[in-house]
Design brief:
single chain, 168 residues, alpha+beta, three-stranded antiparallel beta sheet, two-stranded antiparallel ribbon, 6 helices, globular
């Protein structure tokens, strides 16, 4: 059972800054491929080396944080107070903390590259239209991965078995 770090606005907050065991060789063999993928992906650092934040810091962030849109030339940020100091969190701060590169553009990947990726990870269904791919036609570990991505980042579409193009 998790220990409560603090309560705020009738919500109980618990520590959750644990790293993911993506290099755990005790995991079932079927999951080794996705573990290697995650470990070598852009989010590998975020999954395996999370910054340690105290409950006091988290509480200060939520109690004092104010959004600043950055004005005409600035960067959007959240400014909060911690131990009588102003602290600022920007997109750059988050990218640095998660070990992500600084991308200034979005790269569009074509259907042929997405079809190739789906074949490489073992998709067993027809690859005629990207928007009609279904999770049950993936191996279970990849189905679970896409389910997590869909639920975390996508708006609910026709059903939870669909793999939205933006998730790919």
């Amino acid at each position: 059972m998790a220990t409560t770090a603090f309560s705020a606005s009738a919500l109980e907050f618990v520590p959750n800054n644990y790293s993911a065991p993506v290099a755990n060789e005790n995991a079932p063999e079927a999951f080794h491929l996705i573990q290697r993928f995650l470990l070598n992906s852009d989010i590998g650092t975020a999954l395996t080396e999370p910054s340690k934040l105290s409950a006091t810091q988290i509480k200060a962030f939520w109690q004092t944080g104010v959004y600043d849109d950055g004005g005409e030339n600035g960067s959007p940020s959240i400014i909060f107070q911690y131990q009588d100091n102003d602290c600022t969190v920007t997109p750059r701060t988050v990218r640095d903390a998660l070990g992500l590169e600084d991308f200034n553009s979005f790269t569009v990947i074509g259907d042929s590259e997405l079809f190739r990726m789906m074949r490489e990870i073992g998709y067993s269904g027809s690859l005629t239209k990207i928007g009609q791919l279904k999770r049950p036609l993936l191996r279970k570990e990849w189905s679970f991965f896409f389910d997590c991505i869909t639920r975390a980042f996508g708006k609910k579409c026709t059903n939870w078995d669909a793999i939205p193009t933006d998730s790919l």
